[in-house]
Amino acid sequence: MLTFMAYFCASMIAHGQQQASLATHSIKCATSQAQKPQSGIYPGTFALPPAFPDSVLSPSGRFMIYYYASGDTTDTASIATTAFADSAGLDADRAYDFEIGDLGYTAPQYTVVYFNPATNDSVRHYNIYLIAFHTPQGFYQLEAYGATFILDSGQDNNGRLADSPSGNYRFRSYIQTDDSFTSDIYATHGLDALRITIFHEFFHVIQFSGYGHPPNFMAPYPNYIYFQEMSSVWMEWLSTPMVKDYLNYVGQYLGTLDDRFDESPSSGYGQYIYFAYLTHRFNDTGIVKKIWEYYRDSSGDPITCIDEVLRRDYGSSFCEEYERFGAELAQIGSSIGMASDIPDPDLLPVDSIHITGVPFSSTYEFPSIALSLQLFSASTQTQACLEVIARDTNRAVQSNGSIEFTSMTQPPVLSFDAPTGDCDTEICSPGLQVFPNPFVSDGSTLTYLLASTLSTAPISVVMNIMDLNEIEIRSTKTAALPFRGTWNAVWDGRDDNGKLVGSGEYLYSLHVDGALKAGKIVVVRK
Fold first, then answer.
1. 45: how many CB neighbours lie within 10 A of its CB?
2. Which of 7, 236, 359, 477 is the most buried (most CB within 10 A)?
3. pTM of the predicted protein model
4. Nearest in space to 67 (alpha carbons), one of 57, 28, 75
């Protein structure tokens, strides 16, 4: 069991930014659906698609782009222009240079290798097919940005490669993407959508050829599709951060943190943010590569791979980092300009995160499972605190827990009937600018505005509350009150006339012994 005591709560989005919404459009990647097992645990495999009338070789000569320059006139979006196909070739070369050249992943086996007697030379390239993925395609009637298909071993395709040292299946594969990205089913369109899709899918090609195909099978076999998808969406974030299509999928994951990490309904698309957090936290773009290398060499279980790499190379563990990750999520929005190892903090739909309110000085019982994050809060008129709990990697254990907040000077009483592991680190953090934020105002609650972390109280604290037009609604000189080892001004949600302000965003400034502190507060009226 790992517990993290922290006094914060947040779901504020920076002014002028727009938070991501839950995706209601097509699935991002149809790779897992395309590779449902034919029998047992062996994934679905496919022959190369029938001949396309048009093709262009990428400038590097590594990628052959197949497309239809003319097609069904009832669906003009099914026609890929030559310029679009050329862009696909350029993006494929960029993906190769970035993922193989810059990041150092093992170059995958080519989709096709054959001898051409006409040129007396061998031909080898990766195949990318531009198809109308905006309409249901194939046996599984897929609609998606793209998919990576495992090549079968019939007709001299030789799709099956030697298994990895850890026993994972490895394969050649080919890519299909939409041929225009103009349909309303996509959150991102045009060349931006094409580029992120090729970077995403080519990373699948790398995974399946050099490291092993994570199984995506029904019980009793393991389902590890989240690993391949969180990795490829992470690659989008790393390679093309200005597009931010990945934000359309993170809300579903943040809304189900109390589920097992490896069973999130986001299917891995949202879990990319944990890999992004680890990349920032350790300032190492190679951390995901190390995890895939461990998957290739030592273990077919992605969670074990993440945990062992964190222990071996970074002196941490999955559980410890998941705890810190959850604590940072809880802090997002608590102050303007807060440093965070979580990317895009001002754009994340952090109000999707579920925080369970617990009556102060009462015991609250709850179910708890491995690989989960659970957040609990308790408050009185003058006290507030939040507990972040991350469970470790023993998935065989399901347990019940209880929590009781009894004091602001002591961590809550926390117990489990079946502890799941060796994580027992506890951290306390007073370094908030505002708590709670959002502030639920009912006339009796208070929000704390951090004035000083020094051991002695400030001499002078002047608090000003303004609306977003910077019109002052409350101004007062106040004594700083102690709050968990810090000194704070407090606001009761009222204006200078004693009336409760309405729901919305407000600006605050604190003049503390002549120094200025400023930020935002979100008020929610009951």
1. 20
2. 7
3. 0.76
4. 57
Identify the residue whose tokens are 């991102």. 188
Closest CA to 447 of 513, 514, 500, 511: 500
Give the 3-state secondary structure of 433-496.
Answer: CEECECEEECCCCCEEEEEECCCCCCCCEEEEEECCCCCEEEEEEECCEEECCEEEEEECCECC
The three-point CA angle 121-124-127 to 5° equals: 145
Q: Is 466 left (phi over 0), alpha (psi -120 to 50) or beta?
A: beta
CB atoms inside a 10 Å sphere around CB 490:
17
**Is the bond into 438 cis (omega within 30 degrees of 0)?**
yes
DSSP code per residue over 80-126: PPHHHHHHHHHHHHHHHIIIIIIT-PPPPPPSEEEEETTTTEEEEEE
Q: Which residue shows structure tokens 């934000």?
A: 247
Query: Please, which residues have CB within 8 angstroms of residue 434's CB and are 6 or more apart in sequence?
Result: 334, 335, 447, 448, 449, 450, 508, 519, 520, 521
Task: Kindly give, in sequence order, each residue whose CB lies less than 8 Å from that of residue 6, ignoring residues fewer than 6 positions away.
Answer: 327, 330, 331, 385, 386, 387, 388, 427, 428, 429
Does 220 sit behind a cis peptide bond, omega within 30 degrees of 0 on the bond before it? Answer: yes
* pLDDT, mean of each 10-residue run, the chain (526 residues): 26 26 54 54 79 93 92 57 94 98 97 77 90 69 84 75 91 93 91 96 96 70 84 97 93 91 88 96 96 94 94 93 85 51 84 78 86 77 67 78 77 76 39 66 77 73 90 87 70 91 89 80 81
Cα-to-chain-centroid distance, residue 453: 32
Residue at 373: amino acid letter: L
SS3 state of residue 502: coil
Residue whose token pair is 């009637």: 141
CB 237 within 8 A of CB 271: no
